Amino acid sequence: MHEKVPSTMENRAPMIRSQSEKQLSLAEFDWPFQTALDESNRWVRLSACIPWDELAQGYYQGLSTYQGRPAKNARLVIGAVIIKHKLCLSDRETVAQIQENPYLQYFVGLPGYQMEEPFAPPLFVEIRKRMGETVFDVFQQAIIDAVDNVKAEKKRRSASRPATVEPESKDDDDPPSGAAEKNEARHQGKLILDATVAPQAIRYPTDLNLLNEAREFSEQIIDILYPKTGWKKKPRTYREKARKAYLGIVKRRRPGGKVLRRGKKQQLQYLRRNLGYLQRLLDCWPEGTRLPLPRWLLRRYWVIQHVYEQQWEMYRNKSRRCDHRIVSISQPYVRPIVRGKLDKPVEFGAKLSVSLSDEGLARVDHLRWDAFHEGGDLRSQVEAYRQRYGAYPEAVLADTIYGTRDNRGYLKGLRIRFAGKPLGRPKKVTDANQAELKQLKAQRRQEYLQRIPIEGKFGQGKNGYRLNYIRAKRADTSSAWINSIFLVMNLLILLKVFYLLAIQHGILFLNCLKHTLAILSGWCRKNPASGLAGCAMGS
After folding, report:
1. Could you say which of 45, 182, 437, 483 is the most buried, measured as most Cβ atoms within 10 Å of its Cβ?
2. Do 303 and 407 lie in a common domain?
């Protein structure tokens, strides 16, 4: 009788491995951090190349030494800002990540792992208030100095290598070395300029929505002021009728122009009535006395008066434009900026004038909340480049909008080439100048391609670090938010330069080791009695 042979399916281990859903205790959980932190971790590597002392000096210079409560450690504050914008986190989530991650705690300079929060999340608002343009100028200069130090170290290492090629004989037609060095000291590198808009995180503004929001704020102020006056009867605001009229328009799929104009007229009338009541209510308090309103609501009252004046002026003139137009009641400093893009013809945020160096370091030279001509910043950007690097750039790569006659004359006086199409009619092509014109056209094409990195920098900021969605609520904190994003991108450039040098050092070490082993192997073959021949052959 034959024994039953187990089938293959019976021998195979089960593919569905079930386990108990009961959570392990903390004592049973395998905790791998009894050992040292991994040196190859990205936060450890980034921490090693950041000039923390220079950044700390820039942060402390705006603080008082003997007044106020003790400030947080500069490395903790700056490190938290870097983590926030590197990972695109909210303020509260950034603090939670630092609390849970030992690598992040090492990055911000804590002496050891701690279970409690490093600081309260609302402290981020105070940090952004303190970080003005002066602080970020110091930060950017510290990064530039760090990159220059790495480049100088690279040159020193390259100069210390033995020369493999003999220098060529100097021609008599070559300029003297002193003149070349002087010209190089006067002009070096290229300056890339461009402008963009960092959109603010606000609801898309419409006239009807702004009027409705202003009316609701006016009703809220009336509700607060009326009980504190001696009026026997509360003012009638008709809020239910106004709300119903507003919803009857916005709920339509495509309301026509006449419907929208009638709706704006209704909301203007309701708002005018409420502002009249508010003026009479405020007259109950003598001039100089403190009004019983919170500060944020008092600011809203000032804003809604300007909103009413602007909207009434546009309604009366049948226009859709006005000077210094307010598009957000909570953020009245935001202005519409027409950029002429296909997908976003109008943007709402801060307009930035940015310069980019050869190393890829970006700097916000000018930030304003209204539309301005970016060509007017060229002179200040060129002079700032000279102060940072000690020399003027060889060429300025920018759009045609920068190439005004005044700017071209200024650059020509400094012997700086403007990489753009020349003004006036194009020259007539002849047999004598055909080759020259073809060469100039190829050069302009090449320099146009060299402008691409600054567009990539804008794309990196908007797609990778939320430069297109600034969530700060104040003008100064929004400016700090934008500058922090550019600071993080520059730190990544510093990290790249730092570790490229380390890789080059490693390659140089391996080449030296290979050369040494080759010499040792040759010596062992010539001296077999030394007993090292087998070792050399094995190596």
Report:
1. 483
2. no
